[in-house]
């Protein structure tokens, strides 16, 4: 591991100011991904600003019903929160489907959003990677890409974003509240992560030194039901091949509102807006669910080793929506 | 001569458990030494070629770096013909990940960082890492014997090919015939404790605290590499956190640690990272197997052909006995087994739990399931119908063979009776349900190279000494029980010492030979000690105590009987109709392993082997990138091993039997037989559930999804 400096910040302005001084620095929260990448030499920050002590560790209900989740709330705490379990089961289920108990105990909300792809070439210094070293090439596209993207990838990069929590938050229309050297702003979660395009080294729209302070989750209609379904290569402790976060609100047998996000298929949590448009106002039937899923996945460009993800995603979308429809009031 | 079991057969608690639970059992890397230095290796990033440039200046200049070793300046070794042991002796690169240097520093962190600062230039040659059956350079193994000091074509000393009768004619005229190809990938051992070596020189003598399955063989190989007399090298390894075959040889890492300690004139500690283990400590080689079966209208096999093509390394030949079990499993007058090697620019393969049999019986036992269906017979009944009375190739009787009893007892316990043979006929919601069976077997060899010393003190306390290994299997406990019965004393009166070459030599823990060999040695020495006490000391311990050392006797019965463990495994699986996810809610095995020394540690081994078999069936695959020649999924996030959540109800039973010919304990091997057949039982159950036959491991959901949703 390359030697680095370590500083602890006690408040948000100090943390932001500390990192603004270090162009090659990074915030450290749970460290469950960052420290691994530092050991491997994938990331070599000269300064770590530890933000675990910041007063961003609360989950609170705002007057308008929004749930505000502090950035340093751990994945374990968030998954176990009564309000989350009752009002947003999709979020609790996504968190519990991820990592292990030990990792969830230290991984934070902000850090979870900013974890990096697990593409094997990205993590291997002995191979090229446009995300790690721009311009060196992408060995995954013609190599091992079974776990990688079928939607929205570019010639530069076919990586997937590994988070489960982010997929649930994408379906919940969450907002990310940040503070950087230029002040505070709010970014919709669906716009936090980027598609790779010609700059695969940039995972998100955040600027250097911009710190996630909280994630706001707007209230759901009381009649809405939500669920997270993750399909992976073993029963636990594996990243998603395909996951689906869905919120469904049905009135009189027709879809009043539906939100669908897919994990494991793209460089970002993939909000299935085409499917959603096709379903709003439509009857909640298996045929319509399937047609909507197929409409969404018509944009898929699978690689030879991950073509199975397209029918898999279709089936999981349909199963998840059917399950929610059956459980609707 | 057999012994009367008293301690044997009782579920004695693991004697090493209190120390392990308290963290007081020292594993190799933890062994305290004065001012240790730490080693981090440099590894080749091309699969074939030469090192043409090494710029180590920046690494050497890093504060805390003591030395950077490369082929330019590493001390010369006495071995040249063993590409694994002969580290840093040449600029040749034979596989990606090969050790091409080492940084030695005050801390592991400095060593690792400085290793990143070394600039390496290579002249790359075209490489070839793809196992294809149509290669034109396949060759018959000549002498790949690596284990037990035997000589022979395959690594366990057996011949590469066998043949009886006229297989082709019998297949051509068979009423029912099957012709199927099965493939298995590279598997990696991944014991929890990585490979470690702590090398300490003192006055021209070397001590290596080394995580090894065989202290004696490690000592011999390290000494030979360094050109030292074996007595000037001591290997100490009392506790080992798993090995599964990857820790029988010291590979190159222990030699490198010894060289490094020599160069910096300080003790050196070296622990491999998980990633390094994927190229430096061996793996189960991938194989392509063609199985052809022919049967008459009565469901009796007339022909069995099992032709194997498997990976080996150009750097160092290795040939695994993949089709060996086919030589004794089922009766048929016309039969053939062959092994051919594909020489590749890959790291050197090695023994991994049930070498050969784990892959080979996946193929044979899958084929038997396919053939049972083709013959319209229940798979249990089909196996029983083809049970041989004696070894089908040699004609020798079996020392004991209770496969039929395992199948019948397992079927009864599992609830097999009345099973509907129709495929894809049972459904529970979105899950298709099926059951499958497969047989298990593994040889029970005894290996030479064992001796034991037993000392009895005037207080009547016995010390039993042999350089045996406990790799988590329970040797500390089971060998103590054997010694107590052989000495006719209680377990409390016996103190066992193992895992140290300061003790008498022992063969390594592998190929299910451990207890068979060490136990026999202990029993023989105990017999002589008691005879001496009887003849010279009136049956009492003399005031000064008494000590006897004896070599393990040969087993003349080994040439008169076929000696194998057997078993039957039953699996229930559920396959999700929309995703292809596979779950195994139930695995049940019944084994014929002779007399069980300790039911607690035996059960633990059987459950562990079945779990590893499940993992092989559903998860484990080293994914090779043919462009680079390396396994790209070299960590626990990407190389999947079964988690607790993947394992449902697991039941292991054994028959109450003993073997009169294997050894004085009446025991047979237990460590390998339990992984053999598991993958086939699961694959057969997947077929029963879905109608989809998966012939290439692992059975991942994409292989099922494609064929499940075609309707």
Automatic annotation (TrEMBL), chain A:
<dbReference type="InterPro" id="IPR002346">
    <property type="entry name" value="Mopterin_DH_FAD-bd"/>
</dbReference>
<keyword id="KW-0560">Oxidoreductase</keyword>
<dbReference type="GO" id="GO:0016491">
    <property type="term" value="F:oxidoreductase activity"/>
</dbReference>
<feature type="domain" description="FAD-binding PCMH-type">
    <location>
        <begin position="1"/>
        <end position="222"/>
    </location>
</feature>
<dbReference type="InterPro" id="IPR016166">
    <property type="entry name" value="FAD-bd_PCMH"/>
</dbReference>
<dbReference type="InterPro" id="IPR016167">
    <property type="entry name" value="FAD-bd_PCMH_sub1"/>
</dbReference>
<dbReference type="GO" id="GO:0071949">
    <property type="term" value="F:FAD binding"/>
</dbReference>
<dbReference type="Pfam" id="PF03450">
    <property type="entry name" value="CO_deh_flav_C"/>
</dbReference>
<dbReference type="InterPro" id="IPR005107">
    <property type="entry name" value="CO_DH_flav_C"/>
</dbReference>
<protein>
    <submittedName>
        <fullName>FAD-binding molybdopterin dehydrogenase</fullName>
    </submittedName>
</protein>
<dbReference type="InterPro" id="IPR036318">
    <property type="entry name" value="FAD-bd_PCMH-like_sf"/>
</dbReference>
<dbReference type="Pfam" id="PF00941">
    <property type="entry name" value="FAD_binding_5"/>
</dbReference>
<dbReference type="InterPro" id="IPR016169">
    <property type="entry name" value="FAD-bd_PCMH_sub2"/>
</dbReference>
<dbReference type="InterPro" id="IPR036683">
    <property type="entry name" value="CO_DH_flav_C_dom_sf"/>
</dbReference>
<dbReference type="InterPro" id="IPR051312">
    <property type="entry name" value="Diverse_Substr_Oxidored"/>
</dbReference>
Automatic annotation (TrEMBL), chain B:
<protein>
    <submittedName>
        <fullName>Xanthine dehydrogenase</fullName>
    </submittedName>
</protein>
<dbReference type="InterPro" id="IPR008274">
    <property type="entry name" value="AldOxase/xan_DH_MoCoBD1"/>
</dbReference>
<dbReference type="InterPro" id="IPR036856">
    <property type="entry name" value="Ald_Oxase/Xan_DH_a/b_sf"/>
</dbReference>
<dbReference type="GO" id="GO:0016491">
    <property type="term" value="F:oxidoreductase activity"/>
</dbReference>
<dbReference type="InterPro" id="IPR000674">
    <property type="entry name" value="Ald_Oxase/Xan_DH_a/b"/>
</dbReference>
<keyword id="KW-0500">Molybdenum</keyword>
<dbReference type="GO" id="GO:0005506">
    <property type="term" value="F:iron ion binding"/>
</dbReference>
<dbReference type="Pfam" id="PF01315">
    <property type="entry name" value="Ald_Xan_dh_C"/>
</dbReference>
<dbReference type="InterPro" id="IPR046867">
    <property type="entry name" value="AldOxase/xan_DH_MoCoBD2"/>
</dbReference>
<keyword id="KW-0560">Oxidoreductase</keyword>
<dbReference type="InterPro" id="IPR037165">
    <property type="entry name" value="AldOxase/xan_DH_Mopterin-bd_sf"/>
</dbReference>
<dbReference type="InterPro" id="IPR016208">
    <property type="entry name" value="Ald_Oxase/xanthine_DH-like"/>
</dbReference>
<dbReference type="Pfam" id="PF20256">
    <property type="entry name" value="MoCoBD_2"/>
</dbReference>
<feature type="domain" description="Aldehyde oxidase/xanthine dehydrogenase a/b hammerhead">
    <location>
        <begin position="22"/>
        <end position="126"/>
    </location>
</feature>
<dbReference type="Pfam" id="PF02738">
    <property type="entry name" value="MoCoBD_1"/>
</dbReference>
């Amino acid at each position: 591991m390359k030697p680095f400096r370590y500083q602890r910040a006690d408040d948000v302005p100090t943390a932001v100011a500390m990192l603004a001084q270090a162009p090659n620095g990074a915030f450290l929260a749970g460290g469950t991904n960052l420290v691994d990448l530092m050991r491997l030499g994938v990331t070599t920050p000269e300064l770590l600003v530890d933000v675990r002590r910041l007063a961003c560790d609360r989950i609170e209900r705002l007057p308008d019903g929004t749930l505000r989740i502090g950035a340093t709330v751990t994945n374990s705490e968030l998954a176990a929160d009564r309000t989350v379990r009752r009002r947003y089961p999709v979020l609790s289920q996504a968190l519990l489907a991820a990592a292990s108990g030990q990792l969830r105990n230290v991984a934070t909300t902000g850090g979870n959003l900013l974890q990096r792809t697990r593409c094997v070439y990205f993590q291997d210094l002995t191979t090229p990677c446009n995300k790690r070293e721009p311009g060196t090439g992408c060995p995954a596209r013609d190599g091992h890409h079974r776990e990688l993207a079928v939607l929205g990838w570019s010639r530069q990069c076919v990586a997937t974003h590994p988070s489960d929590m982010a997929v649930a938050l994408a379906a919940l229309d969450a907002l990310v509240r940040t503070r950087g050297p230029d002040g505070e702003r709010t970014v919709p979660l669906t716009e936090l992560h980027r598609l790779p395009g010609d700059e695969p080294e940039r995972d998100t729209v955040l600027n250097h030194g911009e710190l996630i302070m909280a994630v706001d989750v707007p209230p759901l209609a009381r009649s809405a039901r939500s669920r997270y379904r993750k399909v992976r290569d073993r029963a636990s402790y594996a990243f998603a091949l395909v996951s689906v976060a869905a919120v469904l609100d049905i009135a009189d047998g027709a879809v009043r509102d539906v939100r669908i996000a897919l994990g494991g298929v793209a460089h970002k949590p993939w909000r299935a807006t085409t499917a959603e448009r096709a379903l709003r106002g439509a009857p909640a039937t298996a045929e319509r669910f399937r047609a909507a899923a197929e409409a969404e996945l018509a944009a898929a460009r699978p690689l030879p080793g991950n073509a199975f993800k397209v029918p898999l995603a279709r089936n999981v979308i349909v199963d998840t929506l059917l399950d929610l429809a059956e459980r609707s009031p | 001569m057999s012994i009367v079991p008293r301690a044997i057969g009782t579920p004695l608690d693991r004697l090493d458990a209190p120390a392990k639970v308290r963290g007081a059992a020292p594993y190799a890397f933890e062994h305290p030494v004065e001012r240790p230095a730490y080693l981090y290796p440099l590894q080749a990033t091309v699969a074939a070629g030469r090192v043409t440039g090494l710029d180590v200046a920046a690494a050497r200049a890093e504060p805390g770096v003591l030395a950077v070793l490369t082929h330019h300046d590493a001390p010369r070794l006495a071995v040249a013909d063993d590409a694994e042991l002969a580290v840093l002796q040449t600029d040749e690169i034979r596989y990606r990940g090969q050790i091409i240097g080492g940084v030695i520093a005050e801390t592991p962190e400095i060593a690792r960082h400085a290793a990143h600062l070394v600039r390496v230039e290579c002249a790359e040659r075209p490489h070839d890492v793809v196992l294809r059956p149509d290669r034109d350079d396949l060759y018959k193994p000549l002498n790949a014997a690596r284990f037990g000091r035997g000589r022979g074509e395959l690594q366990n000393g057996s011949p590469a090919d066998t043949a009886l009768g006229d297989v082709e004619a019998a297949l051509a005229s068979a009423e029912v015939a099957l012709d199927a190809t099965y493939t298995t990938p590279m598997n990696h051992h991944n014991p929890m404790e990585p490979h470690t070596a702590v090398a300490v020189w003192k006055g021209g003598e070397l001590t290596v605290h080394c995580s090894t399955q065989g202290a004696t063989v490690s000592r011999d190989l390290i000494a030979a590499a360094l050109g030292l007399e074996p007595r000037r090298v001591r290997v100490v390894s009392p506790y080992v956190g798993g090995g599964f075959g990857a820790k029988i040889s010291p590979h190159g890492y222990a030699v490198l640690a010894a060289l490094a300690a020599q160069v910096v004139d300080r003790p050196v500690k070296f622990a491999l990272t998980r990633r390094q283990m994927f190229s430096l400590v061996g793996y189960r080689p991938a194989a392509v197997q063609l199985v052809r079966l022919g049967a008459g209208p009565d469901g009796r096999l007339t022909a069995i052909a099992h032709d194997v093509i498997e990976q080996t390394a150009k750097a160092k030949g290795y040939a695994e006995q993949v089709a060996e079990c086919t030589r004794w499993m089922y009766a048929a007058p016309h039969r053939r087994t062959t092994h051919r090697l594909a020489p590749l620019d890959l790291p050197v393969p090695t023994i991994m739990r049930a070498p050969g049999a784990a892959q080979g019986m996946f193929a044979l036992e899958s084929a038997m399931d396919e053939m049972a269906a083709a013959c319209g017979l229940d798979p249990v009944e089909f196996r029983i119908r083809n049970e041989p009375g004696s070894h089908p190739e040699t004609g020798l009787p079996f020392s004991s063979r209770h496969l039929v009893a395992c199948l019948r007892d397992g079927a009864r316990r599992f609830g097999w009776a009345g099973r509907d043979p129709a495929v894809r006929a049972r459904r529970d919601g979105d899950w298709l349900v099926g059951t499958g069976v497969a047989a298990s077997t593994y040889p029970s060899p005894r290996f030479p190279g064992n001796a034991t010393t037993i000392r009895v003190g005037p207080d009547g306390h016995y010390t039993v000494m042999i350089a045996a290994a406990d790799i988590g299997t329970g040797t500390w406990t089971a060998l103590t029980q054997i010694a107590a019965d052989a000495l006719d004393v209680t377990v409390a009166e016996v103190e066992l010492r193992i895992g140290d070459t300061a003790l008498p030599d022992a063969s390594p823990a592998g190929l299910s030979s451990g207890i068979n060999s060490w136990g026999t040695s202990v029993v023989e020495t105990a017999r002589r000690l008691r005879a001496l006490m009887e003849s010279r000391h009136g049956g009492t311990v003399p005031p000064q105590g008494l000590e006897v050392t004896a070599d393990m006797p040969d087993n003349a019965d080994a040439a008169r009987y076929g000696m194998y463990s057997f078993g039957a495994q039953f699996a229930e699986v559920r396959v999700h109709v929309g995703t292809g996810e596979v779950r195994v809610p139930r695995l049940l095995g019944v084994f014929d392993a002779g007399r069980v020394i300790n039911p607690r540690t035996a059960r633990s081994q059987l459950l562990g082997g079945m779990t590893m078999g499940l993992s092989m069936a559903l998860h484990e695959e080293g994914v090779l990138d043919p462009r680079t020649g390396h396994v790209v999924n070299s960590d626990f996030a990407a190389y999947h091993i079964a988690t607790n959540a993947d394992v449902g109800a697991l039941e292991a039973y054994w028959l109450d039997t003993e073997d009169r010919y294997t050894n004085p304990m009446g025991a047979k091997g237990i460590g390998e037989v339990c992984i053999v057949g598991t993958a086939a039982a699961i694959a057969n159950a997947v077929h029963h559930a879905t109608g989809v036959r998966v012939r290439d491991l692992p059975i991942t959901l994409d292989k099922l999804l494609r064929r499940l949703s075609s309707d």
